[in-house]
Amino acid sequence: MADDKVSKVDIVNNVIKLYPNTIGVFNDFHIDSCCGGATSIEEAALRDKADTEALIKRLNEVANAGN
Predict the structure, then answer these.
(1) In this structure, is residue 41 part of a structural domain?
(2) pLDDT for 31-58, tens place per residue?
(3) Residue 5 belongs to a domain
(4) In this structure, is the dihedral angle defined by the CA atoms of residues 25, 54, 31 and 17, taken in order, positive or negative?
(5) Which long-range contacts (CB under 8 A, 24 or more apart) does 28-37 make?
(6) Listed residue (5, 25, 19) closest to 67, CA to CA
């Protein structure tokens, strides 16, 4: 989608820094954003067994809503 601010190759910690409200989304999907936040969203989702597409969709909803 053209409006997407977040993609699966973005680094978890960078997304949180740019869009602080996304921390709740990462928590909801059980993504380790503390010790495991220096990796891409796709890698983190695979590692933590989260649905990557659903995660990206929700992250973009929150990022596009503003902080």
Answers:
(1) yes
(2) 988 887 899 999 999 999 999 999 999 9
(3) no
(4) negative
(5) 28/58, 29/54, 29/55, 29/58, 31/55, 36/12, 37/11, 37/12, 37/13
(6) 19
Structural domain tally of the chain? Answer: 1
Q: Which residue has the tokens 């973005």?
A: 10
State the Cα–Cα distance between residues 28 and 64, nearest whole angstrom. Answer: 18
Using alpha carbons, select from 31, 22, 37, 32 the residue that is nearest to residue 51.
31
Measured in whole angstroms, the distance separating CA 43 from the mean position of its chain's CA atoms is 11
Residue 57 included in any domain: yes
The domain of 27 spans: 12-65
Largest CA distance in the chain: 31
